[in-house]
Design goal:
Length: about 650
């Protein structure tokens, strides 16, 4: 049994004998332990007496539970010494805990910053790289039970027989670890592969093509999970091309996988250049009327915020607004908008901030209640994370980026965990249980995302990054073909003020929120300052809570963000000799890069804002190192992770 090997690898000596079992094992059944609420994946770890001997029992209703229980025990003992009695028990709150790989068939990864794709499509299906097993082990250890292998900007080729065979080989490796394989599909595949004239979901020939394709996939992968679809978004084909709805498209695919118990994850990330509506409103406008129209094996996958994985966004207004549809949340683990793998930014606080947000729809309802299906009693529920995994030796581009993969898995299992508890556990499991190391690493991590918010654009500003690759500052960009690709579209700064008016006097995106939440966002006085300029266009002189003007406050945030990185460098320096030398060195170098780039963000942004508002910097504030023209002249044509 795989769980046995994991225990042998990881557990300290001196424990009582361990029994890995299921609820049905006769000696375990006799103990009458509470297995009812555990479902197929939950576990129970207990010290019990069996045949008169103290025994450490690890059990679930099936093998998956026992495997997760083994990992839970390993995790527990990494942070807590063994006591004579032990009782751990947990079942996942979310059913589908899925990584989304934006991996292309040529080995590149869209928004990937950890090297080439782990999947070597060229040598698959014959060569099964041992790293595929390690990948599965790592995922199983944090409860992830599904993986979408290819980019949502999908090529039809991944549905051809050779690529199905390659996916099947990966599925064979992952299966023992409780991980199902899914594929992103290109909606126009019936035209490209099937020679049909249309991909209209209402055309019987199209539906028949997908059904035959699903049957073919299930012959190769009997437990195939299903399809993920990006349709009518950023140039991808979809049902809207034929005047059909997103529900028509999703349901047609859902019918194809239904006989095999497959599911469809249909993304709500849609916006169109032909639509002058505030981009933040378009997904809601398109999807809300479709509530109740989706087949029962469809989940609508909604990004955590209404724009696109910014360092901070208010939660997406669709959460709570489609009670008759299971909504999956999509987080981005890879740091497309947080300056890539080099910057240390622990995303636990970003994830929990969204999961804990009150939807305003029902009393006390949170985004997590919607996502885990509790709010409406949905059978299906899911959380997706855009993976930050590649072929780099450290898997994620840096040791600290592994924490984001870890946090995603832990929160998908239990969205109520605190970001800090997860950070502490990760620090101990990664660096060992030295108190100073764990405290210091946790302290660095906990404020690190806020620091990125501060030095890239605080107070609810968003999408100020440079064009295309999204690396570094570009708040001045105003010349891109689509209005909503330009940073100026988002910040709307002029001599008088800054911010996007999303109240009734502006785009009224606030109207897509419900009850007390909508009321709070409707007025600057009741909007949290962290989201102020997301919802309001305000004068530079507006007084903030601390008495400073908005301009002074914004400048203060830039300086605070840069200072935080400086402190992280000192904190990390204090751990020299206490963590692995190679990891220490790489992290120290990355922190130095981060400090330089945080300064660059600050200086470039201040130079630009001053060119717009014509205001001096507050007294004592250091001026930008270069003039605005210098910052505008910076170009990075080979920045990693670009779409192609
Ligand atoms: C996979 C953003 C990214 C794109 C990504 C898209 C999406 O726009 O920049 O690279 O495409 O989101 O989530 O579909």
């Amino acid at each position: 049994m795989l769980a046995q090997t994991e225990l042998e690898r990881a557990l300290p000596a001196g424990l009582p004998p361990i029994l890995l079992a299921t609820a049905a094992t006769p000696s375990v059944a006799a103990l009458r332990l509470p297995f009812e609420g555990l479902g197929p994946e939950g576990y129970l770890v207990r010290t019990v007496t069996l045949n008169g001997r103290p025994t450490l029992l690890i059990a679930g209703n099936g093998d998956k539970g026992a495997l997760y229980g083994a990992f839970a025990l390993i995790r527990h003992l990494a942070t807590t010494p063994f006591a004579d009695t032990l009782s751990l028990s947990s079942a996942p709150r979310v059913k589908l805990r899925v990584l989304n790989h934006w991996d292309n068939l040529d080995g590149s990864i869209e928004r990937g910053y950890a090297g080439q794709s782990l999947w070597d499509w060229w040598t698959l299906p014959d060569f099964r790289d041992p790293r595929y097993t390690d990948y599965a082990r790592a995922n199983a250890s944090i409860g992830i039970n599904g993986t979408v292998l290819n980019n949502v900007n999908a090529k039809a080729d991944s549905l051809t027989a050779p690529y199905i065979a390659k996916a099947a080989a990966l599925a064979d490796v992952f299966r023992p670890w409780g991980i199902k394989v899914y594929l992103s599909v290109r909606f126009s595949a019936p035209i490209e592969l099937g020679g049909l004239k249309t991909a209209d979901p209402r055309d019987p020939a199209v539906a028949a093509w997908w059904k035959a394709k699903a049957d073919e996939i299930y012959r190769a992968i009997p437990d195939f999970g299903g399809f993920l679809v990006k349709a009518n978004s950023e140039g991808q084909p979809g049902p809207r091309d034929y005047g059909a709805s997103h529900a028509d498209g999703a349901n047609m695919l859902a019918a194809a996988v239904k006989p095999h118990d497959g599911i469809v994850m249909w993304r709500a990330f849609v916006y169109a250049e032909t639509d002058p509506e505030d981009r933040a409103k378009q997904a809601y406008t398109e999807f809300k009327p479709l509530d109740g129209k989706f087949a029962d094996n469809v989940l609508v996958q909604v990004k955590n915020g209404a724009i696109d994985f910014q360092p901070r966004e208010p939660f997406h207004p669709l959460f709570g607004a489609m009670p008759r549809t299971p909504l999956m949340i999509e987080f981005q683990i890879t740091k497309e908008y947080l300056d890539f793998a080099t910057h240390l930014a622990y995303l636990g606080p970003l994830f929990t901030e969204v999961l804990d947000a009150k939807t305003g729809q029902k009393r006390g309802e949170t985004v997590a209640d919607v996502v885990d299906g509790q709010a409406e009693g949905h059978k299906l529920s899911g959380m997706a994370g855009v993976a930050n995994i590649g072929r780099d030796r450290d898997w994620s581009g840096s040791t600290f980026n592994q924490a984001n993969w870890y946090a995603f898995g832990r929160l998908a299992w239990d969205p109520d965990l605190s970001a800090e508890a997860i950070a502490r556990a990760w620090a101990a499991e990664t660096f060992g249980n030295d108190r100073q190391v764990v405290d210091t690493v946790t302290a660095m991590m906990m404020g690190s995302r806020e620091a990125v918010v501060d030095y890239t654009g605080a107070l609810g500003l968003a999408h100020l990054m440079a064009t295309g690759h999204h690396y570094g500052p570009g708040p001045w960009v105003a010349d891109l073909a689509r209005p909503e690709w330009n940073p100026v579209y988002y910040h709307r700064a002029d001599a008088a003020g800054i911010g996007f008016d999303r109240t009734t006097s502006g785009s009224n995106a606030v109207g897509q929120y419900a009850g007390p939440v909508a009321r709070a966002f409707a007025k600057p006085e009741t909007t949290p300052e962290s989201m102020l300029l997301w919802f309001h266009h305000l004068p530079w002189d507006r007084r903030m809570a601390d008495g400073r003007t908005l301009w002074e406050d914004l400048v203060g945030h830039y300086d605070r963000g840069v200072a935080y990185v400086g402190r992280m460098r000192q904190q990390w320096d204090s751990l020299k000799g206490k963590v692995d030398a190679e990891i220490w060195q790489k992290t120290a170098t990355y922190l130095a890069i981060q400090e330089r780039e945080a300064r660059w963000w600050r200086d470039a942004s201040l130079a630009y804002w001053m060119s717009v508002n014509h205001r001096p910097l507050p007294a004592g504030v250091r001026p930008p190192e270069h003039d605005l023209a210098w910052y505008k002249a910076q170009h990075f044509p080979y920045a990693p992770g670009q779409a192609h």
